[in-house]
C-alpha cells in the first residue's frame, strides 16, 4: 500500500490509524512555540540590536525540543480553532483555513510582541523516511520599536518511519531576518552522524546589515543556547565569555507522549479563555478519547469527523460555495519560500473584538454556536 506513495506529498493523502497519534492537533502545535515567549519579551525590551536578535532567534530554536516527539498530531478539521490565554499575558488564536491543501494560521499578541504564522507543510515520502518542508511564513513584530522579524526554519526529516526506532532531525539553516534594520541571524543545525555524532548541535552568527558577524551563537537545540561577542572573523572577542540565553525546563518523568508540562497545559482548560469557542481543538471527541486511552472510540470518532468533512465539502461544491475563515483573511499576495510559493493569509483583527465583548459582558461568554461559531465536528446544517 505504501509503495505507491513513494516520492509523493502525503500531507493529507493517507488515512492513518490513531495508534500513531498524540492527543493534540496541529493548531495546538502552533501555540507550543510560545512556551518560551519570555525571550520575545526580552527582545522587545533590549536596546542592543544584536543581542535582541539573539533573544528572538533563541525563541525560534526552543520549539525543536518539543518537536522531538514522534507521535503524529491530528490534522485539524476545516474551520477548527484553538485558543490560548493565561500564559505570559498572551492571547492566541489559530484556525484551519484550508483543507486541500492543508493550511493553518495563527496569531498571538501581548504587550511586547505580535506573532503571526501561516503554515502549509509539504512532505515527501521516501519509503522508510519522510521529508517535511516548512512552507509558510512566520513573522514577529516587536511593539516598542515596530521592528519586524521574519523566520525561515530548516526542513525536518523523519527517520525509520516504518522499520526501526523513529527519530527526527532538522539539518540545515535557520534564518531570522530583521526586515526593519537589515540585521540577520544564520544558524546551522548539524546533521546527525554515525552513532549520533553532531546531533542536536547548532551554531551560527548574528550579522549586521553589512553581513559582518557581531555575535556567535552555539549550543544544542534540545538543551541550551549561549552567545558571545565576536570579531569580524567570527572569533570570540578577548575578555568576553559565553553567556547562556536559554535552557530547557524540566520535563515530566515517564510521560507516555513525551509531553512537556507546557504541552499538558495546552491540552487542559487552564489555558482556555472564558467563552471558549465550540470549534476548539480541546473539544474534539477523537482527541479527547485518545487522551483518555480509549483507542477504539478515538478511531471511530476520527473516521466520523473525516466523513462529515467530506460530506460538507460535497455540499459546498454542489451549492458553489466557498469556505470563509472567521479569524483570518486571504490577502491575494503570494510569498516565496525555499520549498515553494504560498498564498498569504493575515489576521483580520476580529478575535480581539470578540474577546473584548466576552470580557465586557458575562453573558457573551455563553456563545450561541448556531450564530457565532462553526463547530467542525457537526454538519453545518446541524448548527
From TrEMBL:
Domain of life from the UniProt record: Eukaryota
Annotated GO MF terms: sterol binding
Family annotation (PROSITE patterns): OSBP (PS01013)
Alphabetized SUPFAM superfamilies for the sequence: Oxysterol-binding protein-like
One GO CC annotation: membrane
InterPro entries xrefs: OSBP_sf, Oxysterol-bd, Oxysterol-bd_CS
Stretches the record annotates as Disordered: 359-383
Coiled-coil region: none
Similarity comment: Belongs to the OSBP family.
Protein name: Oxysterol-binding protein
Organism: Ceratopteris richardii
Origin organism lineage: Eukaryota, Viridiplantae, Streptophyta, Embryophyta, Tracheophyta
Amino acid at each position: 500500500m505504501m509503495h505507491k506513495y513513494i516520492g509523493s506529498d502525503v500531507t493529507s493523502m493517507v488515512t492513518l490509524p490513531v495508534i500513531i497519534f498524540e492527543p493534540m492537533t496541529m493548531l495546538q502545535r502552533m501555540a507550543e512555540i510560545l512556551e518560551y515567549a519570555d525571550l520575545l519579551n526580552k527582545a522587545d525590551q533590549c536596546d542592543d540590536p544584536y543581542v535582541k536578535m539573539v533573544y528572538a532567534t533563541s525563541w525560534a530554536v526552543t520549539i525543536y525540543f518539543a518537536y522531538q516527539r514522534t507521535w503524529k498530531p491530528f490534522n485539524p478539521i476545516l474551520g477548527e480553532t484553538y485558543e490560548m490565554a493565561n500564559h505570559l499575558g498572551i492571547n492566541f488564536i489559530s484556525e484551519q483555513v484550508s483543507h486541500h491543501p492543508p493550511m493553518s494560521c495563527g496569531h498571538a499578541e501581548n504587550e511586547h510582541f505580535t506573532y503571526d504564522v501561516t503554515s502549509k507543510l509539504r512532505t515527501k515520502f521516501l519509503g522508510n523516511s519522510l521529508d517535511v518542508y516548512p512552507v509558510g511564513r512566520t513573522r514577529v513584530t516587536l511593539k516598542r520599536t515596530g521592528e519586524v522579524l521574519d523566520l525561515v526554519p530548516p526542513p525536518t526529516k523523519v527517520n525509520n518511519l516504518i522499520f526501526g526506532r523513529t527519530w527526527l532531525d532538522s539539518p540545515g539553516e535557520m534564518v531570522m531576518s530583521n526586515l526593519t534594520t537589515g540585521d540577520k541571524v544564520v544558524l546551522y543545525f548539524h546533521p546527525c552522524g554515525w552513532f549520533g555524532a553532531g546531533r542536536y548541535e547548532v551554531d551560527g552568527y548574528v550579522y549586521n546589515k553589512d553581513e559582518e558577524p557581531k555575535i556567535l551563537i552555539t549550543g544544542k537545540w534540545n538543551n541550551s543556547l549561549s552567545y558571545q561577542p565576536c570579531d569580524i572573523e567570527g572569533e570570540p572577542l578577548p575578555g568576553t565569555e559565553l553567556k547562556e540565553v536559554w535552557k530547557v525546563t524540566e520535563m515530566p518523568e515517564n510521560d507516555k507522549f513525551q509531553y512537556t508540562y507546557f504541552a499538558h497545559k495546552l491540552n487542559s482548560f487552564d489555558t482556555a479563555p472564558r467563552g471558549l469557542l465550540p470549534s476548539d481543538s480541546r473539544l474534539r471527541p477523537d482527541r479527547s478519547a485518545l487522551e483518555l486511552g480509549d483507542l477504539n472510540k478515538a478511531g471511530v470518532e476520527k473516521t466520523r469527523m473525516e466523513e462529515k468533512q467530506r460530506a460538507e465539502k460535497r455540499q459546498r461544491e454542489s451549492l458553489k460555495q466557498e469556505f470563509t475563515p472567521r479569524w483570518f483573511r486571504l490577502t491575494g499576495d503570494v510569498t516565496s519560500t525555499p520549498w515553494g510559493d504560498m498564498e498569504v493569509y493575515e489576521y483580520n483583527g476580529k478575535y480581539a473584538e470578540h474577546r473584548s465583548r466576552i470580557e465586557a459582558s458575562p453573558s457573551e461568554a455563553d456563545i450561541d454556536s448556531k450564530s457565532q461559531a462553526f463547530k467542525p465536528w457537526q454538519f453545518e446544517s446541524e448548527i
